[in-house]
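Lab notebook, entry 206. We have the chain sequence and a SMILES string for S-adenosylmethionine, and the next step in the workflow is to get a structural model of the bound complex before anyone spends time on docking refinements. Request logged below.

Task: model protein plus S-adenosylmethionine, output structure tokens.
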Amino acid sequence: MKTLKDRFSGSILVLITAACRKFMYVLEEFGLDVLEERNVLHGNLNVKIFKCKI
Amino acid sequence: MKPLLALAMLELAGYDYGKTLIDLMCGGATILIEAALKARNIPHNYLRRDFSFTKINVFDSRVFEIFRENFLSQSNNGVYKIYGIEKFEHHREGAKINCAKAGVDDTVFLNLGDALDYRTYPQESFDMIATNPPYGVRMAIKHGLKNSIHSF
Ligand SMILES: C[S@@+](CC[C@H](N)C(=O)[O-])C[C@H]1O[C@@H](n2cnc3c(N)ncnc32)[C@H](O)[C@@H]1O
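Result returned:
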């Protein structure tokens, strides 16, 4: 996340992940907000698509 | 990753042809291919012929072809700033093949690099990053998918 913040400040990030809670925790740690999120069943996995502003 | 899911990510992001886009862990380049098709105004799934509805009685292949040609006539072959980074050469090779099959290898630029090292990124500024990091469901237990999310 530090890499992203240093290199892409101001950009939009969309990311799909199964590690939702960890991702939210990391966003919080770096002071980034979730603009939108969607739950998706990806095969047998419950995943989320997150949209954030870096 | 299913192409429709990649398209959903791009729709959520608000991607359009004027935006610069990068996938930092591009794998087979599904997200980038969908972005290129969207930028070129080419309908999603345009190469597919085996739709279930083609098997129903009322299906008229001539009408289907007219609609298909009509949609495709509105497409363009512009070159857009759509970039991918992949850590492994064999995945990048696969991505190149996929892009060529989809007819977008002239607008998707694939670099070998490491998402965790921005010195390997292209020298561009990007409006959007769309990515699908490895799930590593089995590996997660052993090596910690969560830690990789943190480093990323
Ligand atoms: C889940 S796959 C992406 C699949 C892709 N969205 C698709 O549908 O084709 C994740 C990819 O990230 C690549 N990868 C893993 N770690 C990476 C890193 N640090 N930098 C760049 N690529 C990485 C893997 O080699 C793999 O191809």
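Notes for the group: Strands of chain A lie at 12-17, 34-42, 45-53. Worth checking against the assay data. Chain A touches chain B at residues 1, 3-4, 6-8, 11-19, 22-23, 26, 36, 38, 40, 42, 45, 47, 49, 51, 54 (CB under 8 Å).
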